[in-house]
Amino acid sequence: MAEDGLNSFMTGPDEQGRFGMFGGRFVSETLMPLILDLEERYNFAKTDPSFWAEMEDLWKHYVGRPSPLYFAPRLTEHLGGAKVYMKRDELNHTGAHKINNVLGQIILARRMGKTRIIAETGAGQHGVATATVCAKFGLKCVVYMGAHDVERQAPNVFRMRLLGAEVIPVTSGRGTLKDAMNDALRDWVTNVRDTFYCIGTVAGPHPYPAMVRDFQSIIGKEVRWQLAEQEGEGRLPDTVVAAIGGGSNAMGLFFPFLDDASVNIIGVEAGGKGVDDRMQHCASLTGGRPGVLHGNRTYLLQDNDGQILEGFSISAGLDYPGIGPEHSWLHDIGRAQYVSITDKEALEAFQLCCRLEGIIPALEPSHALAHVMKIAPTLPKDHIIVMNMCGRGDKDIFTVAKHLGVQVAV
Amino acid sequence: MTRIDAKFASLKASGKKAFVTYIMAGDPDEATTLAVMQGLPGAGVDIIELGLPFTDPMADGPTIQLAGQRALEGGMTLDKTLALVRAFRTADQTTPIVLMGYYNPIYSRGVDLFLTQAKEAGIDGLIVVDLPPEEDDELCIPAQKAGLNFIRLATPTTDDKRLPKVLQNTSGFVYYVSITGITGAAAARPEDVAPEVARIKRSTDLPIIVGFGINTPDSAQSIAAIADGCVVGSAIVKEIGAGKPVAEVLAFVKSLADGAHRG
């Protein structure tokens, strides 16, 4: 199936946690034994039927999986080309795909006897999902969030506090998602015995990128059978599209299709004000180069001296200067294509989706949708696109109102 | 034999413990760093750790984070850090200098080019926080081949099973991190550290230097007494960050050095 001598694109990472040259375990010695322990415990859980039975039970009764695969008729008609399907992960409990992964990590944390969960969050969706599952299991939860994000995502901060989590505004560095991740790592290195670090995306040291991908792969697995149900046995999507910050919703959609050569895979990065040398964007693959940060080697936004640059995006959830290492690998070997969408294009897609389909999307999947709007008109009517509607837009209405010049009373 | 190896041989011959200090290159500017560096040996410092600033210092507490930010805001770069070492070497050919930092600025330069430049500038060893033994092929082994010491951190989470792996490609000395945590945070407790140093000693002949959480002449003395020496970083960086004159910073360093050398 796979090209360039590989039997499969789905066997990574290798024993060193590498996808090609990307990934790895670039952490301090204090954390290294913890990461090795986590890897061992995850490898055991992965093949343990009782682990997956617990996951499936909660996915069904607590999260509401499977999420629908929805054919978007008016959007399809409007675009006049390919058939557009939306994977409705915004209908999950907590309103995004994040909880798929959080459940997996917290069930694992419980099996490891950890009593305190820490997490980083950007838009707040991963923080809310972590706070939610911690509340459900009675675990102590501490969420690190950039001070800048605390301000622009106030409703999610309040949600987390309602759920009993302690939200710590991060002022170190520039007070954004990457700094929140730094502070979470500083917490973990200090509280090594009782604490589990629940990472929200397919980044970080091995085994996180693989583990988070495995938990999120439920998205693509469901798409496979749901599309066959609606379009006929064996029918695969022709194109799958997802937005990418760190890249967990995208990896979840893409992974089960990596060995299906007929499926085009497109990741959409946040182009902010445009991918040029002003660097006001978060497009690590289109505007960055390989480097080492937060435990893994991957494409990063950085200056000539290897100092990390701040990302820029209307969407707090995409505002990260790196990307999961598996995406970097898929990019370099050419199995997936990566494009970028500007803030302006995402805002247009956001509004169109509201009016045509009665769905208020989050700003993150609005980027994916904007790319669908670009390509669908150029494709034949029997071409099937599946985009991942990975989050709902309730959290973003104030940001959108501001950009549209509308005053919303709070 | 590097300057580090020579320094420990001479300390051993005179029965003295090593006093190691950390300062951030370019904090708040290059002239201040050079002036402090030039005064450190006279204040009793045996080995200088020079911090290479990085935007995302995951293992450092607020004091060193802010020092790195000040340095970067002042335009500090890898080239300017190497230039500082070169300037220091014009007058001092014996005090060992260890460059301490994170991997990305080195990786960004290119490992081979970096090693050539570092060696040429007069750097003797490297401590790279985010390169555990699992990533030895990246920099550790090339550095040893280039004649630089690669100093590894051992920590309270490094158990007996893992210790040989940590020691395997370490040279110069072993840096024992006294606490689980970040720089400048909790205080190191001699009663916790002593058995750990003894444990590591059973597996290596390398000197063991203890760092993290040492900030007074007394703690320098009590920690140095149970190891081959100690490191003070944040406490000195804090003085520099407060804008103290170089002479005052060096007087503080001397009080710490005297403490460590009593140990």
From TrEMBL, chain A:
GO MF: tryptophan synthase activity
Transmembrane feature ranges: none
Q: Which reaction does it catalyse?
A: (1S,2R)-1-C-(indol-3-yl)glycerol 3-phosphate + L-serine = D-glyceraldehyde 3-phosphate + L-tryptophan + H2O
| Cofactor(s) named in the record | pyridoxal 5'-phosphate
Q: Please list the coiled coil stretches.
A: none
Q: Which UniProt keywords apply?
A: Amino-acid biosynthesis, Aromatic amino acid biosynthesis, Lyase, Pyridoxal phosphate, Tryptophan biosynthesis
Where do the Tryptophan synthase beta chain-like PALP domain residues begin and end?
Answer: 64-391
A Pfam family of the record is PALP
Keyword match Plastid: no
Q: Which residues carry this modification: N6-(pyridoxal phosphate)lysine?
A: 98
User: InterPro entries, alphabetically?
Assistant: Trp_synth_b_CS, Trp_synth_beta, Trp_synth_beta/beta-like, TrpB-like_PALP, TrpB-like_PALP_sf
Q: Does the keyword Amino-acid biosynthesis apply?
A: yes
Give the enzyme's EC designation: 4.2.1.20
Highest taxon in the source lineage: Bacteria
An example of a Gene Ontology cellular component annotation for this protein is: cytoplasm
Give, as in the UniProt entry, the pathway in which the protein acts. Amino-acid biosynthesis; L-tryptophan biosynthesis; L-tryptophan from chorismate: step 5/5
Query: Which protein family is it in?
Result: Belongs to the TrpB family.
Q: How does it assemble?
A: Tetramer of two alpha and two beta chains.
The record's function comment reads: The beta subunit is responsible for the synthesis of L-tryptophan from indole and L-serine.
Task: Write the protein's name.
Answer: Tryptophan synthase beta chain
Q: Tell me the name of the encoding gene.
A: trpB
UniProtKB/TrEMBL annotation, chain B:
Catalysed reactions, semicolon-separated: (1S,2R)-1-C-(indol-3-yl)glycerol 3-phosphate + L-serine = D-glyceraldehyde 3-phosphate + L-tryptophan + H2O
The UniProt keywords, alphabetically, are: Amino-acid biosynthesis, Aromatic amino acid biosynthesis, Lyase, Tryptophan biosynthesis
UniProt keyword Lyase, yes or no? yes
Question: What Gene Ontology molecular function terms does this protein carry?
Answer: tryptophan synthase activity
Keyword flag Ribosomal protein = no
* Job description of the protein: The alpha subunit is responsible for the aldol cleavage of indoleglycerol phosphate to indole and glyceraldehyde 3-phosphate.
The UniProt similarity line reads: Belongs to the TrpA family.
How is the subunit organization of this protein annotated in UniProt?
A: Tetramer of two alpha and two beta chains.
Which regions form coiled coils? none
The protein's name: Tryptophan synthase alpha chain
Question: Which top-level group of life is the source organism from?
Answer: Bacteria
Pathway where this protein functions: Amino-acid biosynthesis; L-tryptophan biosynthesis; L-tryptophan from chorismate: step 5/5
Q: Give the gene name.
A: trpA
Which Pfam families has this protein been placed in? Trp_syntA (PF00290)
Q: What is its EC number?
A: 4.2.1.20
The organism named in the record is: Stagnihabitans tardus
Which GO CC terms are listed, alphabetically? cytosol
